[in-house]
Automatic annotation (TrEMBL):
The keyword S-adenosyl-L-methionine is assigned to this record: no
Keywords for the protein's UniProt record, in alphabetical order: Isomerase, RNA-binding
A Gene Ontology biological process term: enzyme-directed rRNA pseudouridine synthesis
Annotated family: Belongs to the pseudouridine synthase RsuA family.
Enzyme Commission number(s) from the entry: 5.4.99.-
PROSITE patterns: PSI_RSU, S4
Domain RNA-binding S4 intervals: 2-61
One GO CC term on file: cytosol
GO molecular function: RNA binding; rRNA pseudouridine synthase activity
Entry protein name: Pseudouridine synthase
Keyword RNA-binding among UniProt keywords: yes
Pfam families: PseudoU_synth_2, S4
InterPro entries xref list: PsdUridine_s_RsuA/RluB/E/F_cat, PsdUridine_synth_cat_dom_sf, PsdUridine_synth_RsuA/RluA, PsdUridine_synth_RsuA/RluB/E/F, PsdUridine_synth_RsuA/RluB_CS, RsuA_PseudoU_synthase, S4_RNA-bd, S4_RNA-bd_sf
Length: 240
């Protein structure tokens, strides 16, 4: 017997957190009875239905996408805009992005139907690092980069210390390229941290997620993760 939200996550319905919301909102039925209590235990012979659709175990899918700018980091969009899931073809399983990248941000994004792994990858407890390359307006200083490495508070929101460095600078155009590595995933975090240093972001790309990089991919390209890569992600998040 396992908790219902864990079964839903493993089946690729949604992340563990989203599965809990589905249960609490009365959208899940077990053996034709609506279940709203978190922690409800179910077995292999129980019939589980979400929004009228039976839940069955799916083969785990793990995909790395080079998200282009101008694409939404969701599985579907009520405004009809193109989503990251729309870019992935020939996958019959129900997949969703691990975390998100802003509409105008490009770079490495993982998609999966493994809710447990997705939940851990996005949880700051496991400190999986993400590296971003930003084109900023202004001239960054070593003191500004040092401040970011010490951690900062912006509008009451505290951000953990980040690895930061200046890659290049163009004094004539008053722009620069900087690198920032964080292990949190707070809303607009990189943009807010750099803006706090008077370095508003013009362009932003996530170049690395843990040990994974965009090598060999162009914007819009994707590939399945190799078994050893999945194993390493699980090791990083305590699931090995």
């Amino acid at each position: 017997m396992e908790r219902l939200q864990k079964v839903l996550a493993h089946a690729g319905v949604a992340s563990r957190r989203q599965s809990e919301k589905l249960i609490m909102s009365g959208r899940v039925r077990v053996n034709d009875t609506v279940v709203t209590e978190l922690g409800t235990k179910v077995g292999v012979h129980d019939k589980i239905v979400v929004d009228g659709v039976p839940v069955t175990s799916e083969t785990p899918v793990y995909i790395m996408l080079y998200k282009p700018r101008g694409v939404i980091s969701t599985a579907n969009d009520d405004k009809g805009r193109k989503t990251v899931v729309d870019l992935v073809e020939n996958v019959s399983q129900r997949i969703y992005p691990v975390g998100r990248l802003d509409y105008d941000t490009s770079g490495l994004l993982l998609l999966t139907n493994d809710g447990e792994l997705a939940n851990r990858l996005t949880h700051p407890k496991y400190e999986v690092e993400k590296t971003y390359i930003a084109k900023v307006t202004g001239t960054p200083t070593n003191d500004a980069m040092k401040t970011l490495r010490q951690g900062i508070t912006v509008d009451g929101e505290t951000y953990a210390p980040a690895k930061s460095k200046i890659i290049s600078s163009d004094p004539k155009k008053k722009t620069a390229i900087v690198s920032l590595t964080i292990h949190e995933g707070k809303n607009h975090q990189v943009k807010k941290m750099l803006a706090a240093m008077n370095l508003p972001v013009e362009k932003l790309k996530r170049e690395q997620y843990g040990f994974l990089t965009l090598k060999g991919l162009n914007a819009g390209d994707y590939r399945p993760l190799k078994p050893e890569e999945v194993k390493e992600l699980r090791r990083l998040t305590g699931l090995a």
